[in-house]
Design brief:
single chain; 133 residues; Nuclear Transport Factor 2, Chain: A; 6-stranded mixed sheet; 30% helix
Amino acid sequence: MAPGNVAIVRRAYEALNAGDLDELKTMTTPDFVLRASPATDGKVHHGPEAMGEIIQAINDRWEEFRVEPLEFYETGNRVLALGTILTKGRNEDGLASTAGQLWTLREAKIAAVEGFLDTESAIRAAGLTRLLT
């Protein structure tokens, strides 16, 4: 039995936080699209190299970078993950922000992810108006 979409997204967060580029590449489709939030580089990345590009952007900008997903909402082939981003800059400045990511999956692979620096924008992008938790 194939893992559920939330389990796949959880595994992707684990790989991202561990800097495991090889694992991330195996999890994405060949036409993968990553729309990064301004916390990383705010750019759109395409294809298998997208995960490597975003990890490089994170390493160039931050001494420490961690995404902490706290809530997951699955709807069809998409998973909305809400949580926080915690960073530390090279000159001791940092960022702590609520955050959201909207993941799109296809055939147990990640086809797209879009990052947001606030949960409200992520919720709207998922086509929701509010969440009751």
